[in-house]
């Protein structure tokens, strides 16, 4: 048997749209972590397809992707071979002479520090955070609207456009946030961005004076926000979160920017209480501070009417309302928006133009039509029911079967649940053993800093179905219940 066929590869059903992505990701991970050694000849596409019981075209496509990324090199008449992806381009493997006609990878191979972040390996039961369910999106409608946008461009090819975004999309966003989040705004109040992350980058450029501005962020919190403000030269100060959300009384008086996730605190999941909301707005007025309200998944609340956004009750023009379509639709869309106070809009538009001029016009026009024809509202209503069912399955199981080790954090919205670890649970070891069992759960400590970072597990339920949730929890229960080294140690500590 050829060496590559001995890899432990887990693939979805042959009919799954994820088949190629799963095969490509697992082969690439095996190359990067050294399980497939540099210089190894890959088996023929026919033999590998037969061994995996997939079509040969799927294997050919996976090989082609690896070739285009520089992980594989093709040698005429000899086949495909694994590149040395961990060696800088131009370096030779020790003990191996360069052979005539061996030109190395067709694409430059970067040094380790320059390598892009790789996607996580595909796991059978993956409670990934921040990823919504894409299989229920009306992509037939999306394709029709996208084709219509392209036809419009063909009639009158689009040149550069306005940096604030297409008028139709800004109108759709204004309608969406007014209906879904009670934020009263007009199309002229909206700035379209390349996802929420670009919004944070633009806000950092607008609000930060390098080396001087103090920015308060939630702890634990969302690391990319902290990174954006630190890159702009801000002094970032973490502020504790409790059951009522951000502890406003602990905000440093010198803070001039406060970042908060009031509708569904990331990652703990609590909701900023009414009294804390009022206190935060009072703080902003008294200290002339700006508030960045990240409403990353505010559409998905499961116990009645959503809490009003801070922007809705802001009377001093302090709040920048940031939203995204990464959770309501799909992350690859890379479209988000900001509703800033009137005094900041013109400056943000200038910074947007200096950054990338404007977002993809075809994607903007497609999304605008998707909103205006009612498809987004319909999708959000449907997914609210789907996510509510998944959340109930997950929460019921955690409360019934995991009480010895975990304490779920109460939450009524969003696409993930947090569970605090009880004494005796070795979280990191449990995560490692869960991964070996093809279960992806995630650590709370990744979202905090220092010794005060909470310890626990995070479970996303956006991209995992009911069966995957039950199967994953059953495997995790066996790990924690004493059938593994982690479980036995936890049991001994609990005596």
Describe the structure.
The chain is an alpha/beta fold and 495 residues long. The strands form 4 sheets. It has an 8-stranded mixed sheet, with helices on both faces. It is globular. The two termini are 49 Å apart. Helix 1 crosses helix 3. It has helices spanning 19-32, 45-52, 56-69, 139-155, 167-181, 195-207, 223-231, 274-287, 310-313, 342-356, 361-372, 375-401, 427-436, 466-483, 485-493, and strands at 72-75, 79-82, 125-126, 191-193, 214-219, 235-242, 245-246, 255-260, 290-294, 319-324, 336-339, 406-408, 416-421, 439-440, 442-443, 456-460.
Keywords:
495 residues; 8-stranded mixed beta sheet; 40% helix; alpha/beta; 16 strands; 15 helices
Please describe the topology of this protein:
Blueprint: H1 19-32, H2 45-52, H3 56-69, E1 72-75, E2 79-82, E3 125-126, H4 139-155, H5 167-181, E4 191-193, H6 195-207, E5 214-219, H7 223-231, E6 235-242, E7 245-246, E8 255-260, H8 274-287, E9 290-294, H9 310-313, E10 319-324, E11 336-339, H10 342-356, H11 361-372, H12 375-401, E12 406-408, E13 416-421, H13 427-436, E14 439-440, E15 442-443, E16 456-460, H14 466-483, H15 485-493
Parallel strand pairs: 3-14, 5-6, 5-8, 8-9, 9-10
Antiparallel strand pairs: 1-2, 4-11, 6-7, 10-11, 12-13, 13-16, 15-16
Rg over C-alpha atoms, rounded to the nearest angstrom: 25 Å
Shape: globular
The proportion of residues forming helix, as a percent range, comes to: 40-55%
Low-confidence stretches: 86-118
State the end-to-end distance: 49 Å
Biggest sheet descriptor: 8 strands, mixed
Count of helix runs: 15
Oligomer: single chain
SS-derived structural category: alpha/beta
- The strand order across the widest sheet is 4-11-10-9-8-5-6-7
Instruction: Tell how many strands the DSSP assignment holds.
Output: 16
Question: Hey, roughly how much beta strand do the residues contain?
Answer: 5-15%
Mean pLDDT: 85
């Amino acid at each position: 048997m050829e060496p590559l066929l001995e890899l432990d590869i887990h693939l979805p059903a042959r009919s799954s749209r994820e088949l190629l992505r799963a095969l490509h990701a697992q082969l690439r991970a095996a190359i990067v972590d050294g399980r497939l050694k540099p210089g190894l000849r890959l088996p023929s596409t026919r033999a590998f397809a037969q061994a995996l019981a997939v079509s040969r075209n799927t294997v050919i496509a996976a090989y082609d992707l690896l070739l285009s990324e520089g992980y594989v090199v093709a040698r005429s008449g000899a086949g495909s071979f694994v590149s040395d992806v961990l060696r800088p381009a131009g370096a030779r493997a020790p003990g191996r002479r360069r052979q005539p006609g061996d030109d190395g990878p067709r694409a430059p191979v970067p040094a380790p520090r320059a390598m892009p972040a790789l996607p996580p390996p595909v796991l059978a039961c993956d409670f990934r955070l921040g990823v919504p369910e894409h299989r229920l999106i009306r992509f037939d409608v999306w394709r029709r609207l996208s084709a219509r946008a392209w036809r419009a461009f063909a009639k009158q090819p689009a040149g550069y456009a306005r940096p604030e975004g297409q008028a139709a999309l800004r109108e759709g966003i204004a309608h969406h946030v007014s209906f879904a989040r009670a934020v009263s705004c007009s199309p002229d109040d909206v700035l379209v961005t390349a996802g929420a992350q670009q919004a944070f980058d633009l806000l950092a450029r607008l609000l930060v004076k390098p080396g001087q501005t103090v920015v308060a962020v939630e702890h634990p919190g969302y690391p990319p926000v902290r990174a954006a403000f630190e890159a702009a030269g801000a002094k970032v100060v973490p502020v504790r979160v409790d059951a009522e959300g951000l502890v406003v009384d602990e905000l440093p008086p010198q803070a001039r920017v406060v970042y908060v996730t009031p509708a569904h605190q990331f990652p703990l999941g609590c909701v900023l209480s009414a009294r804390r909301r009022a206190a935060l707005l009072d703080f902003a007025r008294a200290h002339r501070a700006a508030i960045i309200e990240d409403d990353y998944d505010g559409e998905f609340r499961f116990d009645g009417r959503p809490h009003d956004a801070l922007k809705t009750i802001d009377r001093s023009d302090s709040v920048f309302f940031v939203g995204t379509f990464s959770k309501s639709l799909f992350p690859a869309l890379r479209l988000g928006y900001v509703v800033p106070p009137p005094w900041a809009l013109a400056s943000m538009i200038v910074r947007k133009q200096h950054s990338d001029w404007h977002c993809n016009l075809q994607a903007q026009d497609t999304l605008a039509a998707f909103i205006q024809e009612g498809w987004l509202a319909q999708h959000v209503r449907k997914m609210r029911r789907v996510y509510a069912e998944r959340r109930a399955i997950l929460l019921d199981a955690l409360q019934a079967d995991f009480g010895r080790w975990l304490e779920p954090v109460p939450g009524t919205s969003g696409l993930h649940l947090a569970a605090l670890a009880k004494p005796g649970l070795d979280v990191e070891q449990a995560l490692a053993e869960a991964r070996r069992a093809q279960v992806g759960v995630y650590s709370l400590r990744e979202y905090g800093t220092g010794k005060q970072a909470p310890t626990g597990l995070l479970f996303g339920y956006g991209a995992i179905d009911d069966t995957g949730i039950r199967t994953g929890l059953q495997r995790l229960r066996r790990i924690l219940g004493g059938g593994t080294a982690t479980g036995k140690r936890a049991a001994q500590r609990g005596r």
